[in-house]
Amino acid sequence: MAQKQLRSVRGMNDLLPPYSDTWVYFEAQCRQQFAGYGYREVRTPVVEDTALFARGIGDDTDIVSKEMYTFADRKGRSLTMRPEMTASCVRAYIQHAIGKQEPVTRWYYIGPMFRYERMQTGRYRQFYQVGIEAFGIAEPSIDAEQIAMIYELYKNLGLTELDVVINSVGGPDDRPAYRDALRAFLLPMRDELCSDCQRRIDINPLRVLDCKVPSCKQKVADAPSILDHLGEASRSHFEGVQRYLTELGVPFRIDAKLVRGLDYYTGTVFEIIATGDTLGTQSTLVAGGRYDTLVENLGGPATPAVGFALGIERAILSLPEATAAAAATVPDAFIATRGDAAHTYAMGLAQRLRRAGKYIELDHRNGSMKSQFKRADKLSARYVIVIGDDELASGKLTLRNMDSRDESQVDEAALVAAL
Ligand code: HAM
User: Fold this and answer.
1) Considering only CA atoms, which of 298, 331, 394 is closest in space to residue 95?
2) 253 with 165: CB under 8 angstroms?
3) Ligand 1 atom at shortest distance from the alpha carbon of 115
4) What is the 287 CA–ligand 1 centroid distance (Å)?
5) What does the pLDDT look like over 92-103, one tens digit per residue?
6) Could you tell me if residue 205 is left (phi over 0), alpha (psi between -120 and 50 degrees) or otherwise beta?
7) What pTM was computed for the model?
8) 84 touches ligand 1 (CB under 6 Å)
């Protein structure tokens, strides 16, 4: 009986060359950009205790209630494959008492996250995030600095159609009054909301503002604005964020309906949305905000914190072709050889050129000169170095520029400079 062909799990994709070139390039750009602002890399386990996400992200969020990959291990412990990494970072921050070692901590991470979501372009079940978290700074300038940091990176990568949206969801002091006002607004329309929202009115009315059901979205269009319910501290923080964003040259707009899909946010929340048409409805490239109570809620010392995460798939889908092309790795040279003696010499030559930092290809398969040139073309090699008996005898190698098709004779010592 024919065996069923094994395939990757739905919503979880293989990342293969040449597309992986663009990923590696994008990640390197992120690392370089973040390093300039003092962020250092952390790696935490993919799997965590389920309670971390339930308590950290919030039981009533879509992520926790519908989308987690949760399973029992062999001892019956409930484990979850991380749907995001902020909760993991906070867990690590508390576990290693980082706050006792340094007053300010800036971390970044790159890695896979898992959410059982309905799939579409830009939305997958295993997807990759680059994210940052800053602990220990309560001032609004860091919120603005984070937004500016990623905004500038995207602009430098040629992503220009960007909409920076900010809001404040208020702190613990502002929330109760707003929650009451929102509940009073929602109660009369209870029967017209989806069953999830009917439940949310009582336990977590802010979640109604984030409901994806179109009829609910329409219903909450005129809901009271959180911005009218901010206390003095939250208002002045939010004004500070706007002032610094202006100083940093980041154009932004305020959307009082932006609440985000995770419960831990306090104060500033923000998203960067792609306004081009490559992503359809999944156009949020970057999302984040402040979570000043999460460290304490998960058992650590009261610590202000702010961060964001971006989806790598969405970033790559939005990159202009020229940027993606620049990311492609092409050989500096391809060495084409004729005969055993030439191949032996070429092995050593390739090694010496690679030591000088060059990307060198050579064909080990003993093919014809024609097939080797074909391969060099396919790989878009910049140069082909030709070595046959004549070249070995004279010590002069033939160097062909694959763009201009110009040929010159050079000795090995001149090769690195020529490449
Ligand atoms: P999030 O909004 O859930 O926030 O995700 C951040 C970004 O990850 C999204 O804007 C999107 O680009 C990408 N993303 C989310 N889900 C998917 C998916 N299923 N497929 C592809 N891409 C996706 C967080 O995760 C927070 N931890 C962000 C944060 C960090 N807040 C503070 N610090």
Assistant:
1) 298
2) yes
3) 19
4) 6
5) 999 999 999 999
6) alpha
7) 0.94
8) yes
